[in-house]
Amino acid sequence: MTTAPRRQSRGLARRDAITSAAADLVLELGPGALTHRTIATRAGVPLASTTYYFSSLDDLVAEAGALLAARWSAHAVTVATGVEGPVPVADQARLLAAAVLPDGDEHAVRGHYEHLVAAGRSAALAAAYADARSSLDAVVGALVRTLGLRVPAELVVAVVDGAAVTALSEGHDVHERAQSLLRAVLGSPVRSA
């Protein structure tokens, strides 16, 4: 009787390891590089485990997308936690950019946006992001309200995402570009980046 719960927890741990491996591979290599074999190898599990726990590769990619979106929202929550107004406009732009941009160094930010742009090529990944987008918008919306701003959360996310893609494609600093454009949207003078 005591082996069933232990077996179930090991099964959940293996399923989580597979999902996490798939999410990491999406960030590193893009969604097009995902195969059952590459995911199983990264997760350190037998190849058959990927089909045992997931009905298809699309099912697994969708779970990986949901995990990536949850991580993105959790990072936004971490940035927003403890923020109280009034906050200077320059700091508002910094906080909003930090909430929307993924956690990590330039390599992590580049990987995030490369896979985000490529997500549209995977119906499963695009659907997972569309389903989870409301969580990020809700966190950013709460931060916007805490800061006393009157700008839609969707606009903040769009400005930061656009700034990131532009900065990455032109070799500029993503954080500086995002903050500069947010300051313009929020009505403060724009400093050249």
From TrEMBL:
Residues 35-54 bind DNA. The keyword Phosphoprotein does not apply. Signal peptide: none annotated. It comes from the Bacteria. Coiled coil: none annotated. It holds the Pfam family TetR_N. Residues 12-72 form the HTH tetR-type domain. InterPro entries: Homeodomain-like_sf, HTH_TetR, TetR_C_31. One of its GO terms (molecular function) is DNA binding. Keywords: DNA-binding. This is TetR family transcriptional regulator.
